Please model this.
Amino acid sequence: MENKLIASSSPHIRTDETTQKLMLDVIIGLLPALVASIFYFGSNSIVLIVVAVAAAVATEFACQKFMNRPITVTDLSAVVTGMLVAFNLPPSAPWWIAVAGAIFAIAIVKQIFGGLGFNFLNPALAARAFLMASWSSHITGGFIDPVTDAVSSATPLTVIKAGGTQLPSMMDMLLGNIPGVIGETSSILIILGGLYLIYRGTIKWIIPACYIGTVAVIALIFDGGSLLPYHLFGGGLMLGAFFMATDFATSPVTDKGKVIYAVGAGMLTMLIRKVGGYPEGVSYSILLMNILTPMINMYVKPQVFGVAGGKKNEK
Amino acid sequence: MSTKLFTFKGGVHPPTNKSLTQNVPIENAVDPKVVVIPLSQHIGAPCDPLVAVGDTVKVGQKIGESKAFMSVPVHSSVSGTVKKIEHHYVPGGAKVNCIVIESDGKFEVHESVQPKGKVENLTKEEILSIIKEAGMAGMGGATFPTHVKLSPPQDKPIDVLLVNGAECEPYLTADHRIMLEKSEQVITGVKAIMKVLGVEKGYVSIEKNKPDAIEVMQKAASSEEGIEIIALEVKYPQGDEKRLINAVTGRVVPSGGLPMEVGCVVENVGTVATIGNAIETGMPLVQRVVTVSGSAVQNPKNLMVRIGTTFKDVIEQCGGYKEEPGKLINGGPMMGIAQFSDEVPVIKGTSGILVLNKKEAGIPEPSNCIMCGRCVDACPVHLMPYKISGYTLQKNIDAADEYHAADCIECGGCSFICPAKRPLKETISLAKKEILARRKKVK
Model:
């Protein structure tokens, strides 16, 4: 038997958790919001989601094949990206927009930089920014009010930006019965999915809590209590805080770093909403904090046990 | 005992798998026909043989010794004839000089083995000499010579003895059974060490997943002054000495330093019990409790095994292999050393013999780091394992050093927790070795 024993370095046991299981959990966490998007916006939601996921997976496969890298589509990360790309589209967006977004997210943002874990931007959000720059009318318009089925109605945040007062009811806000991109409207179901991820230990509570908390505090200070629900539930904050800002590769690894990142994202979101040209700032604020993440990881390090201030403890 | 649970920041929760053996009382192993006793079973200078081929020896007879301070003697675990003195593979992976003794089956005890009396009637120096002469080295696995640990320099006053009964390694239950079945020996050992160190406080710390051991030890310690039982949170590596000191006393051992720098000495509970036995009976360290466990062992057991018995003999007494073994480990699954043969002897540091099946032994295929940060949260030293590992793979040892690779305690928590199955600890160990070698060169 001598030659049949495996003699490798310790540890000799590994956790059951795998990248694939983590991604599967994220997909499960997104399902409630997916159901809501179909419920409120109908069959085009299904088309956009299916097309985006298929395009994302196909692009990943093609890129890895072309670059002679191991094929890793089974880790499900491309499925997550595809879903998130679709979730960021208005309900009347054409199907090819979803394809373009998914290809950009996977090929340009993810694979060119080395694949999973090496992207410095959240692929889905970078794709949204790309689509916004390329076909802005398809991204900033084409919203549908699920109550009236009227096309091109403004989202609650657009109404606030224009100084309007015709805002949906609190209940509609929570349930998602409001205009918006297909995956962001049902705050309550997104929170449900997010809490599932926290319960499963897939993500930590720190980023969502600090991000949403910062937005809430700033909204309270500058817009008062009456507009607070719209700031929290009227745009992409819940989807962004639970599913976008928590992307592993593009958010800091330490708890302290996560706080800085999330508070920064919250401040930028409100800065864009209050001062910037866009009614909504979640995507850009997360993208900006993504860019700062390597720096946060470099400067916000855990205090090594027995090492004071990064130098040898003299005691 | 305080109701507060003591612990540290970081760590992981591997499945403990202790139920296989935790309720199995210690059983005397079948007497071996031949023992292979390495002359170096400890950290420090190897022993020179005191016997020659053809000599007859008895149980407890000193058969190897070194003049160096950083060394402990070895003793025969059987009575019989010295057959060979030759190099042999040991569980550490090296080939060291060993004394091969054929047992005569009589187990005659050597004349030198005499009870030493009560701790109260012995002086510090006498106890220290008993400990050294008994060949005591840390039986938790590190095998650091005990008398060296108990002789701190004048400028390092010690005020706390910590007895480590955490046994945080999965599968292992040897220390658990020792506390249950040999609590009196443990207490004798604790008292002896406290006397040597001149300390007022001795804490026996036990993970709370061993409530029976906590209860038994509390009862045994109830009439003793200064001995307290501490319940620790169940978390790996709770039994690492610096984590233990931090959990119980709140003190932080400085990077690269020893426990004595914060006034602490940590001894494994098995070591302490063996010291107790050496005082009570005079028998040196010639046998130890070994947990034989794992999915590929027929009947997992806790065995009292004579030092020098081969793994093969021990496993045979447990019904042999249940299926084809994939991995044979000296120690636990987190820090134990994988063996390439079952012909190696049980040594003073063999706390367990773990046999994993082919499936469990498989080395997982690593994929890209997804930067989830789980390794950073798991590291009990608060390092950033993914970064150190990344730099090491780029052969950037300077950067790995900057990220304190040398402070790694090689607990394996990062590799265990990594969802991408990256060989984090394995690469960090490599960097650590390189960094320590460079530092030595500079000196």
